[in-house]
Design brief:
This protein has helices at 2-9, 13-32, 35-55, 63-95, 97-102, 108-136, 144-171, 177-191, 203-208, 213-224, 233-258. It is mainly α. The protein is globular, with a radius of gyration of 19 Å.
């Protein structure tokens, strides 16, 4: 392992950059060739938005479609981070792929950067699909700055869920990973007010909402599309950054310990 670390340390910058690029490319190609991951990740938020935001919300003057655009954008970008990172890491740890990667003369962070690039690309596709439905089917009146702000927010907003998925992938075992991640993914979406406004939920559930990163991302998304939202944008952004850093730190620490 020391010889590999020395080889990476002495690697020219061009080769180092190419190692990151090739790892990101292989991750993206691997998931593009995996319809079992890609289709549900893309279809769930778009079909739900089409049903509940566009078809059922056509009589609300575009307000329901605008509200649901923020909510389902947040719901959509949670999946690539949690499943693309958490489930795949758990399966690859069990299968020994991580051990093989460590034996290769490549930067250790390239594996993680590749998965993040894949998750951000899928988040960009989801945000584009939902924005297209909002603009061209539901005719939600959004300005160019609102469109760009929501798109950039959702692409970057996948990172806290990558960090959470990374941490979960170091804790759970491969075979049980999909079920366990679903047990976190779906309740977190519900309790963050992504499917129903928090105002109609019991008081104690409203008070618990700030615990979830999806709540903070959803408030930022509501702000981006010009809808009423709770709290300060700066506070939500700081909470998401802090959540990401803490999850990454815990995951790296655990991965170094257990392999």
């Amino acid at each position: 392992m020391n010889a590999i670390a020395q080889a990476v340390d002495t690697m020219p910058r061009a080769r180092l950059f190419n190692a990151y690029l090739q790892e990101a490319r292989s991750e993206i190609l691997r998931y593009l060739r995996s319809p079992g991951f890609l289709l549900p990740t893309l279809l769930f938020p778009t079909v739900f938005y089409l049903m509940f935001g566009v078809l059922l919300g056509h009589g609300s003057g575009g307000q329901q479609a605008r509200y649901m655009l923020a909510a389902y954008s947040t719901f959509g970008v949670m999946a690539p981070g949690l499943f693309g990172f958490g489930v795949s890491l758990a399966l690859e740890r069990d299968g020994g792929l991580l051990t093989l990667k460590r034996a290769l003369p490549m930067p250790p962070a390239a594996y993680l950067v590749g998965k993040m690039a894949m998750a951000m690309l899928v988040a960009a596709v989801i945000a584009s699909l939902l924005l297209s439905l909002a603009l061209f089917v539901a005719h939600v009146p959004l300005t160019a700055s609102q469109v760009l702000r929501l798109f950039a927010l959702e692409v970057a907003g996948v990172l806290p869920f990558c960090a959470l998925g990374f941490l979960l992938g170091t804790i759970i075992k491969g075979q049980g990973a999909p079920g366990l991640v679903n047990m976190i993914y779906l309740p977190m979406a519900f309790l963050s007010g992504l499917w129903f406004p928090l105002s109609i939920m019991p008081k104690f559930l409203q008070q618990l909402a700030p615990v979830w990163p999806s709540h903070h991302l959803n408030q930022l998304a509501l702000s981006a599309v010009g809808m009423p939202h709770a709290g300060s944008d700066l506070v939500h952004a700081v909470v998401l950054c802090a959540f990401t850093v803490v999850c990454l730190w815990l995951a790296v620490r655990r991965l170094r310990r257990i392999g």
